[in-house]
Amino acid sequence: MRKIIIAGNWKMYKTIPEAINTVNSVKAGLHKVSDVEIVVCPPFTAIHTVAGLLEDSVVDLGAQDMHYETEGAFTGEVSPLMLKDIGCRYVILGHSERRAHFKESNDLVNKKAKGAVKFNLIPIVCVGETLAERESGRQLDVVRAQFAGTFKGFTAEDMEKVVIAYEPVWAIGTGKTATPDQAQEMHAFVRSLVQEMFGEETASGLRILYGGSVKPDNTAELINQLDVDGALVGGASLKAESFVQIVNAAVQAVVSKE
Ligand code: PGA
User: Fold this and answer.
1) Cβ pair 99, 205 in contact under 8 A
2) Known catalytic residue: 196?
3) pTM for this one?
4) What angle do CA 231, 142, 111 make, to 5 degrees?
5) What residues contact residue 204 under an 8 Å CB cut-off, 6+ apart?
6) Is the CB of residue 180 less than 8 Å from the CB of residue 222?
7) Cα of 224 from ligand 1 centre, angstroms
8) Count of C-beta atoms within a 10 Å radius of residue 189
9) pLDDT tens digits, one per residue of 121-155
10) From the candidates 37, 67, 95, 133, which is the catalytic residue?
């Protein structure tokens, strides 16, 4: 049974006082959640503070991006070593906003994912098609190409340390969610790609999160899908109340999925 993950991606939101408020409210709102892994990914400036607040909690820490090198003359960048040092367990890589606004290629995401695995950070690697790509029926080809480029040179053992997030670009921040059937179709497809490249055992253990306008009221139906192993949540993770509701909905869904 793959353990469900609910990860909050705060993007470029929250000052340190705002981050403290949110984390404290999330901690206060969560009760026994042993069946679900919970992650928050604050902006870099709040990571250290949030790390301290999460020390005694069930919530894990993640970052939203990183450079692939350990150290060096890369002004403005943060390395996997630094993320490990500050207490991160996860790092989001290849988010569509980074691919679109910062021109991140599959090749770059590949280097970053390798860097993360080397440092025992769990990369949450994002793939997903744009609206135009879906409307022209090319979504499977697009995701196949992203997958092949991003995991080039990976071994099955590397893959066991990876989480994938399927995030259709047309569903991110738009209020438009993929239907449970659309999500399941793509998640099953991604799992079949893992199987082709890395074998059955790796494929059946790998967690694939869905992201794109996940909210408290659509969490359960998404997580109930066979190949959906959790959610990467943007907007709805910014408010502690809705993030906790999403976690609670996931806990309920796990019970009914078992
Ligand atoms: P959203 O963002 O939940 O606001 O659609 C998801 C994401 O970008 O990871």
Assistant:
1) no
2) no
3) 0.97
4) 75
5) 191
6) yes
7) 19
8) 17
9) 999 999 999 999 999 999 999 999 999 999 999 99
10) 95
